[in-house]
Amino acid sequence: MQTNEQLLSAIENHLAQIGFPAEPQLLYAPIGYSLAGGGKRLRPMLVMLAAGIFTDRVQAALPAAAAVEVFHNFTLLHDDIMDNASIRRGKPSVYARWGQNVAILSGDAMMICAYRLLSEVPAPLLPEILSTFNAMALEVCEGQQYDMDFEQKQKVSVVEYMHMIELKTSALLAGATVIGALVGGASEEDCRRLRRFALELGLAFQLQDDLLDSYGDERLGKAIGGDILEGKKTYLMITAMSRADEPAREVLRTAHRDASLSDAEKIARVKAIYDALDVPRLAQQQIQLRFERALAVLETLSVERARTERMRSYAESLIDRKR
Amino acid sequence: MQTNEQLLSAIENHLAQIGFPAEPQLLYAPIGYSLAGGGKRLRPMLVMLAAGIFTDRVQAALPAAAAVEVFHNFTLLHDDIMDNASIRRGKPSVYARWGQNVAILSGDAMMICAYRLLSEVPAPLLPEILSTFNAMALEVCEGQQYDMDFEQKQKVSVVEYMHMIELKTSALLAGATVIGALVGGASEEDCRRLRRFALELGLAFQLQDDLLDSYGDERLGKAIGGDILEGKKTYLMITAMSRADEPAREVLRTAHRDASLSDAEKIARVKAIYDALDVPRLAQQQIQLRFERALAVLETLSVERARTERMRSYAESLIDRKR
Q1: Closest to A141 (Cβ–Cβ): which among B112, B123, B134?
Q2: Rounded to the nearest 5°, which phi and psi values hold at A88?
């Protein structure tokens, strides 16, 4: 089997060679722009690595890997409209660059392109893979709707939050992993276990994302504290709200829109409360717990342990266990 | 085979029994609202009637028929955002009732639901039907983009306009008809001919829609002259622009935004030019031509003539030949 670098470059090649017509230009140019935007290609890597657990001929999984990545990028296009986000991976978002209508319609075309790639999987596997993809895609939409619902809600519980990110983030990782396993010829039982693995990994991954947004990491090119400034209900915020007394809660609720504070002060105020309530350590515990559950599920697959080694070390590279 | 009324009620039943979860409410309620909005179910009827040319067991085509109708309604949801349209079939559009973000995300979920319905077609047919559906869906997006492009363009030719409506309107009718034929077991050659039939029928249908918008018809519940008031580049407008002298052209270009005119006066001015240039008769000729071509293609199928009778009379019911 190829190295991760080789897999990644096979994915990039496959994405780069998707044929888009030149016209209508405003429909297709944003798709190419979006797919060339990089990212770590986490989801297609999961497709390839999951296939590799069950077969040495992983090339057959490339169209499905590309389909999952194109779908993911479609969700970013539409999410950026809904979130009014002008920057994506350090470049103007499609929404900011071409406007709302182009972002809506190119996004639609992109979702269709994802299904077109999916239709290239081996025909006998298509019904099962299409069903898995559809269920995954709907879950992602449900997660995005809950995320928007939370903006309007006064109080969100940790359980509700975990359910939301399981849909919005983990479902796509789980779908990718199961689809890869199906291409590799996995049994139903192994697919079920890999789904569990990826759901837990996704939760660890999203919670780490929440933690890094406020506590930073040199690997990320983003500014620190974005979630705090937006008043976003992240795992940190929700946990802090559930542990704070009323005066602290009031600060958590209002700091981000307090015009008398600078951005740095807003961030410092909120983080002081997080720190006092031990929130970063609690988040780190949750990340560790979810990650260990994920790895434990990987042990239960019906294959020799050596076959899961690549997936295990890839998962480890995603989650920083030293914090 | 059942009567058209029975087919229609089978379609309505199938649409009504699609299971949507109750939550998240803002994701799923608009889908139910949109699908309950009625319309003549033209596209699923084409699926069923096309299947009926080749088999007496048309029930198998119901999921595909529902998929095409759900996809059509998805396009309306997103088109209404892009066109800023607040009314759809006499009721508030999803966009007007729930806002832009809900219309984007519910539309996305609706497209996924269309693919979920499609995945219920008999497995051996799925690769071919999925490919047909994907190609059709992309064409519809291309048509919508060209339609938006035309709003910004000074001059649109009749050829460009016909190409646009072939993508935006006819492609969906053609996809529906071919998918129905595939479920019925049609040969590749018969599918190709039925595609031609539906493309021509779609052009006749859209040109008739353009004509009725300005010249009215008691069957339609809409106000007359909407296209003129929006300054839309319809077949009538484009044909008139290509035949008018410069003073008339100036009126055609500017009447809809002339603040000194009432709506009725704007409509009357433009229609006076249409009439003087014989535009309604030219449109009627085009409709007739396209419709006759469609019927002629139907004659060339490899089945007994009696099997195409239902489709022929349904097509006749769509196009008013007496004008």
Answers
A1: B112
A2: -140, 120
The backbone torsions φ and ψ at residue B97, rounded to the nearest 5 degrees and listed phi first, read -80, -40
pLDDT band at A114 (very low <50, low <70, confident <90, very high): very high
What residue type is A24 in one-letter code? P
What is the distance between the alpha carbons of residues B180 and B66, in angstroms, rounded to a whole number?
A: 11
Q: Which residues of B touch A24 (CB under 8 A)?
A: 142, 145-146, 149
Residue given tokens 């497209």 in the structure block: B111
Which of the four pLDDT bands, split at 50, 70 and 90, describes residue A323?
A: very low
Cross-chain residue pair B141–A78, CB shorter than 8 Å: no
Give contacts of A82 with chain B, Cβ < 8 Å: 101, 104-105
Per DSSP, helices labelled H in chain B are 4-16, 25-35, 42-54, 62-82, 94-98, 100-118, 126-152, 158-165, 171-184, 188-215, 226-230, 235-243, 246-254, 263-276, 279-299, 309-318
Asked if the Cβ–Cβ distance from B78 to A127 is below 8 Å, we say no
pLDDT tens track for A270-316: 999 999 999 999 999 999 999 999 999 999 999 999 999 999 999 99
A81/B contact by beta carbon, under 8 A: yes
> What would the mean pLDDT of B137-155 be, rounded to a whole number?
96
Total length of chain A = 323
Q: Which two tokens stand for residue B210?
A: 């353009």
Rg of chain B, C-alpha, whole Å:
20
pLDDT of residue B232: 94
DSSP state of B220: S
Residue B9: pLDDT above 80? Answer: yes
What would the DSSP string read from start to end of A137-160? HHHHHHHHHHHHHHHH-S---HHH
Beta strands in chain A (DSSP E): 87-88, 91-92
Give contacts of A134 with chain B, Cβ < 8 Å.
112, 115-116, 119
d(CA B100, CA A274): 35
Asked if residues B213 and B283 have their Cβ atoms less than 8 Å apart, the reply is no
Residue A134 CA to residue A67 CA, distance in Å, equals 12
Query: Is the CB of residue B123 less than 8 Å away from at least one CB of chain A?
Result: yes
- 3-class DSSP state for residue B87? strand
Please give the helix or strand (H or E) that residue A45 lies within, else none: helix A42-54
Name the DSSP class of B56: S
Q: A129: pLDDT confidence band, cut at 50, 70 and 90?
A: very high
| Chain A touched by B134 (CB under 8 Å) | yes
Of B56, B37, B39, B40, the residue nearest B48 (C-alpha): B56
Residue with tokens 């396009």: B75
**CA–CA gap between residue A225 and residue A229 (Å, rounded):** 6
Chain B residues with CB-CB distance to A27 below 8 A: 141-142, 145
pTM of this prediction exceeds 0.80 = yes
Q: With CB atoms and an 8 Å threshold, state whether A109 touches B27.
A: no
